């Protein structure tokens, strides 16, 4: 269940309440008249089955409340109520399979912003990857995968492609287009410093990274893993199963490839540096393509079910 909170202009409250009351997927409807200060109006609250949330939001937006008032949603960990159970049973579909589109747009938009926190995580992840590359440590490489924040902008790109939201695509493109090069430059500078103080033996590096050579080896499995990771990541985001995202982070070679490219460039190993950049590009493109495909299929499925006809293979 989701908790719906609506600030409604006084002139729209009666119709909003009627629309909520008439929808089978709502429960626990409460109205507080005249309590909203900014914007001025009434406060309407209800619990909504996740699979009914999109329909309910559309009903309220049809009254212009998203412009003249406000609509917020938050997840409920538990709802002990017969009326809540009836609402979930009456709502179309299954809650775990439902996509709340406004929630997805808001979440992906927030996680795709280029800001100091995003850049710091990406720099730290690339530095961890560089340490893993220099020490030939797969464990450190995995740690860099987990720290990397890049799936947020990649998911936002997919959402932007499917929903034709150019604002999301621009924001995500900026985060990736600025974030990765800057993180790689910082990693290269730190690598130069490591070489200067004797922490990095260039000869040993060129001869001794067999345990992490998967980072720059491009093959069909690179694309296959990226596609599977993108699909799993989007499924996790749209079904609120965020725990699965950790597995997505560990499976893709984005940050490690960026870190390897920087270290290899500093040591003069340009072939492997270019191969690492290629690996990075394959993973980024594969993740976005698969995530967009999953999102498009889920959107089409919801539209077909809403139209009351079976999902066809065509």
Automatic annotation (TrEMBL):
The keyword Ubl conjugation does not apply. The chain crosses the membrane at residues 116-135, 141-162, 174-194, 214-236, 243-265, 277-297. It holds the Pfam family DUF389. Keywords: Membrane, Transmembrane, Transmembrane helix. It comes from the Bacteria. InterPro entries: DUF389 (IPR005240). This is DUF389 domain-containing protein. It comes from Amycolatopsis alkalitolerans. The lineage of its organism: Bacteria, Bacillati, Actinomycetota, Actinomycetes, Pseudonocardiales.
